[in-house]
Structure formats: structure tokens, C-alpha cells
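We were asked to recover a plausible sequence for a given structure. The inputs and outputs are reproduced exactly as logged, with field labels preserved.

PROBLEM: sequence recovery
POSITIONS: 305
GIVEN STRUCTURE:
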């Protein structure tokens, strides 16, 4: 009998490519609004046929490097990915094989994330509160989640809405600044920290067409690459960076930022990461441990249901 494996390896690889390499692979649960709102999304951004990877061990081993190494993965929000990486060694190993990444810095994604976090956080807090152990990790997590709940409180944001255009008149933080700070802290900064810690990329695609503050009045494209609390690319800078939707002067600032972000051993510690956020970072690790458990519980529920 003739088997699939009688085909030459190069033909098999073409078949794998056809099934698994698509215009973009979206890292769920968040997909950028840029794609969500695209009228031809389903047609252009067809899903890869992941089931192929489960067909046999041999196909898995031959096809997985193609799936991970040749696709462009589009990441918006990293929390679930960070939790999955801690939960599962295979996820960590797979992430290291990704070579092409797209980051879209789009204020619409922040609004979407804030809405969904605003509704999710109270549920997660109830989940955490129910746990028997009274560890310090639990206390830290409850404190952090409480802080996040307040930051993403929808009712509060709606009340503040008509003050949004106010600019700084004294030293008090305006709602506009609060939102911009949230965006940096919870979305773009966190994403960049994770990306710099995790990946060794050949290609990085950056989309800055909607890179503004959440209100839309300030352009942030020239600052975005400086955010995060790990400043350097631990596994090396991307070989090639393509930037879309930015002016020439923004591109120049981005190029200079990236130049400063290559890791070498002579760096001082505060050039590697933001020390004022070191405390935050330990908190984040504990928060990640916690998310891992939430992730595990959610998975159990999905499997059981
Ligand atoms: Zn603004």
C-alpha cells in the first residue's frame, strides 16, 4: 500500500504549509479590532487546520516547525499566554520556535480589553476568594485584582467620560492620564515585556495606524517601543522590523529605541529592567502563578463540561 510518507519530504512539507500557514494566526482570546472589524476577515484570515498536527506523531514532528516557524502570530494581550506558558512546558517550548510576530498598537483594543476585564475581574476575584489557603500570594493577588477592578470599573469610566478632554491644570492626575497610564501598564507595556522576554524573532511587524491614547487625542507611536519593564530583548533583537502607519520621525525614534534594547553583559541592571517596577514584577509573577491555577480550573471546567 502506498502511504502519505512515500511522498518526498519536500512535497509533504508543501502540504503542511498549505494546511497550516495562513495570512495571520491570532493568539486568542483577544483578536485585534483591526481584524475584528475587517469585512472580509473570514475569507482573508482563514484558520490553520490544527487538527492535522494530531493526525500522527510523525506528522506532528514534521509539521509543527513549519506551523510555528513560518506563520505570523498576531498578539494583542499576553496574560492568558503567560499563564499557559507557566502551566505547560510544551507551550513554553513552542513559543521559543515562533519567528514571526505582529504587534498591533491600537487604542480600540484597549477599549475592548477594558470592557471585558471590567466584567471578568469580579468573577476571577470570587474564584480566588474561595480558595482555602491564606498564602501571601493570595493576598497580593486579591489586592492586585482589586486595584485592576477599580481601574477598569465601567460605571466609573462612564461617569468620567465627559471630563476626558480636560488637560492637566494642577498636579492631579486627570482621567485622560489615568486611562493612558492603564493602557501602558495593562496592555502595551505588558505585551512588550512578555515579547522581549520570550521570543527570538526573525521578523517583527508593528502596526501603528491607531496608536493613540484611549481618547484618541494624543499620538503615542514615538513612545510605544520604550514601554514595558524589561527593556532589552533577552534572546536578541528581531532581525527585521517592519513598521506600518507611522511618520518618518516616529520611525526614527522607534529605530533609536530598538538600538538601545539589545542585550549585552555590560548593561547596568537599570538598563535591563525598570527597578521601580521590580516590586510590580514580583507581584506579577505571583499573579501569573494565580492565573495559572485559574487557567487550569477553566480548562478542567471546559473538559468536564
Ligand atoms: Zn490624548
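RECOVERED SEQUENCE:
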Amino acid at each position: 500500500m502506498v502511504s502519505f510518507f512515500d511522498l518526498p519530504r519536500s512535497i509533504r512539507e508543501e502540504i503542511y504549509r498549505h494546511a497550516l500557514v495562513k495570512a495571520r494566526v491570532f493568539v486568542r482570546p483577544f483578536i485585534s479590532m483591526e481584524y475584528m472589524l475587517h469585512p472580509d476577515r473570514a475569507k482573508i484570515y482563514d484558520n490553520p487546520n490544527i487538527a492535522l498536527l494530531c493526525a500522527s506523531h510523525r506528522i506532528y514532528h514534521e509539521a509543527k516547525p513549519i506551523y510555528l516557524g513560518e506563520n505570523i502570530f498576531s498578539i494583542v494581550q499576553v496574560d492568558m499566554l503567560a499563564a499557559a506558558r507557566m502551566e505547560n512546558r510544551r507551550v513554553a517550548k513552542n513559543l521559543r520556535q515562533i519567528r514571526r510576530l505582529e504587534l498591533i498598537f491600537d487604542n480600540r483594543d484597549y477599549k475592548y480589553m477594558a470592557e471585558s476585564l471590567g466584567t471578568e475581574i469580579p468573577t476571577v476575584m470570587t474564584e480566588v476568594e474561595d480558595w482555602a489557603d491564606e498564602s501571601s500570594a493570595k493576598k497580593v493577588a486579591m489586592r492586585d485584582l482589586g486595584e485592576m477592578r477599580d481601574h477598569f470599573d465601567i460605571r466609573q469610566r462612564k461617569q468620567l467620560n465627559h471630563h476626558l478632554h480636560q488637560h492637566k491644570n494642577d498636579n492631579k492626575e486627570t482621567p485622560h492620564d489615568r486611562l493612558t497610564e492603564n493602557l501602558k501598564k495593562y496592555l502595551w507595556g505588558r505585551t512588550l515585556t512578555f515579547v522581549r522576554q520570550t521570543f527570538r524573532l526573525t521578523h517583527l511587524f508593528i502596526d501603528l495606524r491607531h496608536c493613540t491614547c484611549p481618547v484618541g487625542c494624543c499620538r503615542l507611536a514615538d513612545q510605544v517601543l520604550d514601554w514595558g519593564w524589561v527593556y532589552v530583548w533577552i534572546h536578541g533583537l528581531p532581525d527585521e522590523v517592519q513598521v506600518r502607519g507611522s511618520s518618518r520621525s516616529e520611525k526614527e525614534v522607534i529605530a533609536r529605541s530598538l538600538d538601545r534594547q539589545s542585550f549585552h553583559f555590560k548593561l547596568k541592571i537599570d538598563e535591563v529592567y525598570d527597578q521601580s517596577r521590580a516590586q510590580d514584577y514580583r507581584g506579577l509573577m505571583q499573579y501569573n502563578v494565580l492565573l495559572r491555577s485559574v487557567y487550569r480550573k477553566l480548562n478542567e471546567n471546559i473538559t468536564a463540561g
